[in-house]
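Hi everyone,

Forwarding the result from last night's run.
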Amino acid sequence: MMKDHNMAGKRRVLVTGGGGFLGGAIVRLLVARGERVRSLSRGHYPELARLGVEHISGDIADRETVRRACRDVEAVFHTAAKPGVWGPYAAYYQANVQGTLNVIEACKSAGVARLVYTSSPSVIFDGSDMQGVDESAPYPAHFGAHYPATKALAEQAVLSAARNGLAAIALRPHLIWGPGDNHLVPRIIARAARLRRIGSGHNKVDTIYIDNAAWAHVLAEARLRQDVTLSGRVYFISQDDPVPLWDMVDHILTAAGLPPVRKKISPALAAAIGAACETIYGLFRIASEPPMTRFVAREMATAHWFNIDAAKRDLGYSPTISTSEGLQRLSEWLKKEIVAC
């Protein structure tokens, strides 16, 4: 990973969700740069303790916990969120909206200088193809799932706070993957035997390798420190290398030693299956995520890749780990995980 020692320093910084996939990568990068890092997560993470990270255990939705975590820190990287496409709206609101409101309030009361918020490109997804769109794309009139709906509210809260004096930037990484992934890669592997290509399979998507996503966050905070006029802006970040979605799925399966997806279904059939699953799971109050939802069916059948010129221009961002190198690293990690199991 690229380092800029001129941007490093012995400051105290907070990473919410520091025990998670992205948060953990940001923590490791900050520690390597000589920062004093504090993490706020619900669990306990011995690996963070071994790095000398100060850990506060608690829920991001608890205001007092967040206030305590934000005391005496210069910058906050807010990655903690509830992901996924199934579950009650209240749970998503508490984690994604109330949690972010708590972070904003705590930053203001503690005099935190800068906030970097992890948003999502799904906040602008309207169910149709998005090809090369930039940050001017509007929020949709309707959201297909609670996750993008609440992430959009949280992003708007951050941008509102930026207009009212808090130096803040929002980043929109798309499909983060790599060694240590506890969401995207495991889901693909677990469902390998049941996966079906939806549609033509030619729809391109952006992804971002974990180290590149972490670097973009650290870079955004450093650039905001140098130029406060960047406050209030949103940036897409990616590999800058859109790939056919189902090719990427196959690459991940290959890295896991599994065969590619060959069977296909139409987008209409996938949406019908998703609607049926939602009805059944809702009727019987099944808490686990359905095998398909209408939102996922639309995501898997449409193109969504983004223009990252703004991040290149304003943040100096470019991916330092290529997709091919990332896949090689993923394959090596998965082999170790299989041996360990």
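DSSP finds twelve helices and 15 strands in the chain.

Cheers,
N.
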